[in-house]
Amino acid sequence: PTSKGLSLVETDENGIATAFRGDVLQGLSEPQKAVPARWFYDDAGSELFEDITRLPEYYPTRAETEILSTRGDEFRALIGEGRAVVEFGSGSSVKTPLLLEAIAPAAYVPLDIAGDFLRASADALAAKFPGLPVHPVEADFMRKVELPDAVANLPKLGFFPGSTIGNMVARTATDLLRTMRATLGEGSRLLIGMDLIKDPAVLEAAYDDAQGVTARFNLNLAERINRELDGTIPVEALRHVARWNDDFARIEMHLQATRAIAFEVAGHRFSMAAGETIHTENSHKFSRRSANLLLLAGGWTPRARWTDGEGLFSLILADA
Ligand code: AVJ
């Protein structure tokens, strides 16, 4: 294995705890309570998300994996060998090897804010691809990341699978796309997964599965607040809600109070009326055109597009 030591980029435990507290206290003070979706992914949340990807109702992972495993020759022809693949978020254990096998890169740089998950997936990758230099970087990729010197002179391919871009509203998404461009530099390319608009019933089932795994994933956020921020949220009085917002083409997840409740977080008091919600996630869905428009607004020119056999999900290759 050639996995190098982690470079710590201003995301020490205290920094993360402070950012989490700030986001939660601010979000719970808004008229529509909200907590950013990035805080789902503590260890428990990351494992629950892995469980979600195996649910029968949750099609995005299967659809994207299908594209990656069947279109390897086209990726290689269009992208070429010898790039440094920079993955934004390193959670996926299945998709990354498919891409690396297809395009034979010169190096792999996983970026993730969660150090333990990053180390585990970087080690697994390094073991699977002996001879491939793996340089994990623990960093918040919402800000420009200084890439390791070892890949400074290699052309970059950014890889952002899973339609994670859909978790952001357009302003944040364009900011991130521009930040990625700054991180990757001139001549870079981006391979990005973007989930497609479809029957709302299919979408709502994907985010409210029969086994209740997505509900546990959503509720884990309240439990995490209790664990890490001295919270007293009565989690049993919250229920998981997933609904399609047609105006904004997105699935919204909320935690809805089933009765009037009051609780504390980090010494601050909050209350919720019966029926009131905490908005915990947006998952935007795209058309071919809205996907292209978002990429263009973020400084990327779409060059190629793939969908799975059922037309559920898209992967887009764009140039800086
Ligand atoms: C992390 C963006 C891939 O929005 O589909 C899955 C997160 N939330 N089920 C998504 C998620 C609820 C997921 N992504």
Automatic annotation (TrEMBL):
The gene is egtD. The lineage of its organism: Bacteria, Pseudomonadati, Pseudomonadota, Alphaproteobacteria, Sphingomonadales. Its EC number is 2.1.1.44. Residues 21-319 form the Histidine-specific methyltransferase SAM-dependent domain. This is Histidine-specific methyltransferase EgtD. InterPro entries: EgtD, EgtD_Methyltrsf_superfamily, MeTrfase_dom, MeTrfase_EgtD-like, SAM-dependent_MTases_sf. The keyword Hydrolase does not apply. SUPFAM superfamilies: S-adenosyl-L-methionine-dependent methyltransferases. GO terms for molecular function: L-histidine N(alpha)-methyltransferase activity. Keywords: Methyltransferase, Transferase. It comes from Tsuneonella dongtanensis. The keyword Methyltransferase applies. It holds the Pfam family Methyltransf_33. It comes from the Bacteria.
